[in-house]
Amino acid sequence: MQFDFPFIVSAMKEMVKTIPLTLMMAVLPIVFGFLVALGNIIVRIFRIKGLVACSRFYVSFFRSTPAILHIMLIYLGIPPVADQVSSFFHLGWSANEIPVSMFVIMALSLTAGAYLTEIIRSGILAMDTGQVEAAYSIGLTHSQTFRRVILPQALMVSIPNFTNLGIGFLHTTSIAAIVAVPEITGTATIVASDNYAFLEAFIGAAIIYWVLTLILESVNGVLERKAARFQGGTL
Amino acid sequence: MIEIKNIHKQFGIHHVLKGINLTVRKGEVVTIIGPSGSGKTTFLRCLNLLERPDEGIISIHDKVINCSFPSKKEVHWLRKQTAMVFQQYHLFAHKTVIENVMEGLTIARKMRKQDAYAVAENELRKVGLQDKLNAYPSQLSGGQKQRVGIARALAIHPDVLLFDEPTAALDPELVGEVLEVMLEIVKTGATMIVVTHEMEFARRVSDQVVFMDEGVIVEQGTPEEVFRHTKKDRTRQFLRRVSPEYLFEPKEHIKEPVI
Fold first, then answer.
1. Do B82 and A137 touch (CB under 8 A)?
2. Which residue from A57, A67, A204, B22 has the highest number of Cβ atoms inside 10 Å of its Cβ?
3. Is-contact B14 B189, C-beta < 8 A?
4. Which domain holds residue A212?
5. What is the pLDDT, as a whole number, of residue A231?
């Protein structure tokens, strides 16, 4: 069998069409996950009774199980529940109307939330506690100190870790193929089997992932330089 | 103006403060001296409740705070009356010099931004840093950082300024510039409580000197009384050991040779 160079390009043309959806499934979970993580961190820092245990369980569960499992649990678990709710309140819609990519985004948001909780937590641990005392000493309250001193610094030192997770999630979207969401890897498999040119299709997919990752890395570079300004440019 | 009664603090089995009493009048400069581990820093940190005493009473302006169970409101109130300068500066690393000084004004005191900027700029001019307003702490020397720390504390016009060994982390060459700024503050009539190892500073500027050891006040009085007419042996021993001549004095006990 001959290696078909031109097919790499034509396969890539098909895959490029799925980039918006793929990016959406990578970026939205990070955004929603960030909100989830922020909630977790607030629960932990202010030691909100009852919720601390929930937060620990959530982080432990979602970090101990693979993302593909989260997708399956949400994809298979939510529709029956949603249908029950819909029929109970006579809302008149069915779970079939929810696009499958929504389930993937939901599941990955929960996965990302668990990892981001730990990333932000480690950013907070890296902080010099003296600054917190300094904030109290000039009359800031706990929540002002958290918002204005702890969080900004924890987030800035976490930027490389956020990017790392973002890149990881870009690649994790490939498992969405299992629930038939047309993303990059899934499309590669389809065009490959249509044309019996698997290696070419996957080389094409690799190039696309690589380019997307390079873009993410350069965004990271810009952010890091901005954040590193206060550290005298070193990081 | 400030009355501190019977402050006790225990860390585990370690009894760090064993009933400290101190009265500070308005405009007084009180220096606290003593060996490491004597509890002087812990005592200072109890005054703005960064450390929670197990027992004791702090009263400022006739408002009495029972330190064993202060309410959140009382803690916050007390911290608004005081400001602290730290040994390790503890500047907000992500904020510029001027933002560091403005923080207590705009956030804790809800001052308008322009007003806060003016106040902060003025305080920074007083400490000689008017040309560093937009620098980040990481770009400053130790002495400059500490002067920002002092400006940050001064800006909120506290009733009492607390200094926790403000020069202890500095290069010998930079100690002078910080002490100089502190002398200027003394001239303005601010009430100050200073934990320090700078004996000359303590001798020359304080109204009251407090010598602490092992969690108690061993001796206290005017600099004249404590430094010249020392009553207690422990104080005399401490003052002798920190004096520059100590190294070359003949010793009673010959220790093991060092080399």
1. yes
2. A204
3. no
4. 1-18+182-235
5. 64
Burial tier of B188 (Cβ tally within 10 Å: 0-12, 13-18, 19+): exposed
Q: For residues A176 and A214, state if they share a domain.
A: no
Q: Do both A69 and A135 map to the same domain?
A: yes
Q: Are residues A124 and A168 in the same domain?
A: yes
Task: Assess B91–A contact: CB distance below 8 Å, yes or no.
Answer: yes
User: Is A140 in contact with B104 (Cβ distance < 8 A)?
Assistant: yes
**Alpha carbon of A116: minimum distance to chain B alpha carbons (Å):** 21
Answer for the pair B75, B115: CB distance below 8 angstroms, yes or no: no
Give the pLDDT confidence score for residue A18 in this predicted structure: 93
B156 backbone dihedrals φ, ψ, rounded to 5°: -85, 10
Report the pLDDT averaged over residues B173-180. 92
Q: What is the pLDDT of residue B125?
A: 95
Residue of A nearest to B92 (CA): A131
Per DSSP, B94 falls in state T
| Domain count along chain A | 2
Residue of A nearest to B86 (CA): A134
Across the interface, which of B50, B94, B109 has its CB nearest the CB of A133? B50
Contact between chains at A136 and B48 (C-beta distance less than 8 A): yes
Cα end-to-end distance, chain B, whole Å: 53
Based on the domain organization, do A1 and A34 belong to the same domain? Answer: no
Pairwise CA distance, residues B212 & B21, whole Å: 11
Which residues of A are less than 8 Å from B76 in CB distance? 139, 141
What is the average pLDDT across A116-121? 96
Residue A186 shares a structural domain with residue A176: no
Please indicate, yes or no, whether residues A143 and A132 belong to a single structural domain of this protein. yes
Q: What is the CATH number of the domain that holds A49?
A: 1.10.3720.10
